[in-house]
Write a structure and sequence with these properties.
The chain has 5 helices and 8 strands. It has 187 residues and is of the alpha+beta class. The protein has a single domain, classed as Aminopeptidase (3-Layer(aba) Sandwich). Strands 1-2-3-4-5 form a 5-stranded antiparallel beta sheet.
């Protein structure tokens, strides 16, 4: 492993808190229903809505349902998901980072979103590097994709820092939005 701080994956046992990996300053773990308040806040940030989309989650109950139908289901179905990113020192949740398996893409794609107050500190790059190593070493991915809106320059810069290259523009259902497709291979 390139990152000596990367921990081995832990199995989901009795639906308890499960740490996926650890970096120098961060812990990435499964998103649980108890994280609903954080998820509600993150999904309703103006930057999330602008660059990722409005998920229509407006209440804690809707956030809990989103966690179950998106994050938990993805982990159970695919063995990976977006993970909650928290500061190691304080256990403060600051964002999400992990892998998404979309029916419209041939390979998993990396996704990430962070609360704006934690931007500019290198946390997103640190989490994304850890997730990519986890994808290579534990999940055995041979390649990973990423998609961004055409105007999301900050995500494009992050992807560049972790080894992705712009591939082409693609049309993504259901609304046929034209997005940038990035590729990292071999991992």
């Amino acid at each position: 492993m390139r990152n000596s701080n990367l921990l081995r994956s832990f199995r989901l046992a009795n639906r308890k808190l499960v740490k996926i990996l650890e970096t120098e300053r961060l812990i990435l773990r499964l998103v649980k229903e108890r994280d609903a308040e954080f998820v509600l806040d993150l999904l309703n940030q103006p930057s999330f809505i602008e660059f990722i989309g409005d998920r229509g989650v407006r209440t804690l109950e809707e956030a809990r349902n989103y966690i179950q139908t998106r994050f938990t289901k993805s982990y159970e179905d695919n063995g990976h998901s977006l993970y909650l990113v928290e500061l190691k020192e304080s256990s403060t949740p600051i964002g999400l980072c992990g892998f998404v398996k979309r029916d419209t893409l041939p390979d998993p794609d990396i996704g990430f979103a962070f609360l704006p107050q934690f931007g500019g500190k290198g946390y997103a790059v640190e989490a994304a590097r850890g997730v990519m190593e986890y994808g290579r070493d534990v999940l055995k991915f041979e390649r990973v994709l990423a998609i961004t809106t055409q105007n999301n320059e900050s995500s494009g810069r992050l992807l560049d820092k972790i080894g992705f290259e712009f591939e082409r523009l693609i049309e993504m259902p259901p609304d046929n939005e034209i997005l940038k497709l990035f590729l990292a291979e071999p991992l």
